[in-house]
From TrEMBL:
The keyword Coiled coil does not apply. This is Aldehyde dehydrogenase. Residues 28-488 form the Aldehyde dehydrogenase domain. Keywords: Oxidoreductase. The active site is at E264.
Amino acid sequence: MTLQQNLDRARGIKFPTNAVIDGKLVPARSGKTFDNVGPRDGKIVSKVAACEAGDIDTAVNAARAAFEDGRWRNKHPREKKKIMFKLAELMERDLEELAFLETLDMGKPIRDTLSVDIPTAINSIRWYAEALDKVYGEVATTPSDRLSYIVREPLGVVGAIVPWNFPLHMACWKVAPALATGNSIVLKPAEQSPSTALKLGALALEAGVPSGVLNVVPGYGDTAGQALARHMDVDLIAFTGSGEVGRKLMTYAGESNLKRVALELGGKSPQIVFADAEDLDAAADAAAWGIFFNQGEICNAASRLLVEASIKDEFLDRVLKRAKQYTPGDPLDPASVAGALVSEGQMKRVLGYIDTARKEGANLALGGKRVREESGGFYVEPTVFHRMDNTHTLAREEVFGPVLGVLAFTNEDDAVRIANDTVYGLASGLWTANISRAHRVARKLRTGLVWINGWDACDITVPFGGAKQSGFGRDRSLHALEKYTELKGISVTYKP
Ligand code: NAD
């Protein structure tokens, strides 16, 4: 695969633009579209149905009808599994096309969409298909004239609202367990990256998911997203995105039908490197990868690097060497390990944080600028600040870009204090050869995930989600099924 071959292939990619509602591919009722801008070169790649409240209403009604008549939920579990496997198979068949759509929509390198994003999304569909008949109910302890059993039932209509940083991957983290538990779904992709979700909706129909069960409705957040979250007939909003929108969703739920809300929000994740770490090269690899992979547009990005003061300067040198490898290139170039930021707005936001860090007196060790401007795309070079403390804006707010803040600490207590001194609690990591310290510190870190001597070293088998203002509810693992189901206790009284 060469850049030229990929450019040729990209020209042949057909962007899906219609909503998927009640088994049909349809434009917005109003006929309106929005521009889907490709961050690679700033050009419009497609014009997508700009759905609004009326379209959401149609989709929710279709989802409700499908749920009530049981066309999906009452299928034999083996049949549901077969259809979900078929969906995974079709996604595999179209893996390359999905990868190109993701790269062109969102700016991430083609090598990642081909090897990480799309395969991970497929794995989610398969994993929950495999799980769907492996989860049992419970029988309670009762007196001898009674049998009480507890079943998990699907909630009904799930509204899934997802962000642009891993568009298909995040969508499948929600769609797969929601489908596996028998719900109907209305998926609202981010307006910056709607294409792979729309394709997913069409593939689900091809696989045999009955009409109305998986609806995909593109549109802006404050129109389509808000209408979904305020809808009186939606039972759950499963959300990944910013804290700002998460807060609104809780308000909408309170002002409408008290629907359940599950929030996967942002982070300011600390990666702590103790001087006694066994492999400082591996730690430096993880420090760079943890913040620069996906252009830093990762909710669990390792955006605060906490290094024991005695090794800080030497360790920083190792990180800087590796950081340079993430200099952005054309996302379609198979050699690029970093691409464009998702939008001009996001690029300006990131550059704004860089500016603030400078003004607040942090020391710029690397990067700091927009690059590849001639392409028309939105690229920022890997950027590292040090000689800063945890009160700096860069240490407190989520940048969602390739910007690392390096902080020094003096001892273990100091490291834990700085790590926990944040409103977020999504993920954290620590590097040490001292096994007692590793477990002790892991227990003290107030985050949903802790990685010891590795970063992001887990997969679908481990629940993903945060503490504090990083949200509540979990994606991945069997625990995700809890979010999409309600417990029902059934008691039978009989003659002993
Ligand atoms: P965002 O919150 O702006 O948008 C996310 C989604 O919400 C989009 O689909 C958007 O259209 C929709 N939305 C916006 N306003 C809405 C409203 N008023 N009502 C209903 N829906 C609305 O976030 P983003 O900019 O797309 O993504 C970046 C954020 O997502 C970051 O803060 C990041 O940390 C977070 N994120 C978290 C995780 C996680 O799992 N914790 C994963 C990825 C991203």
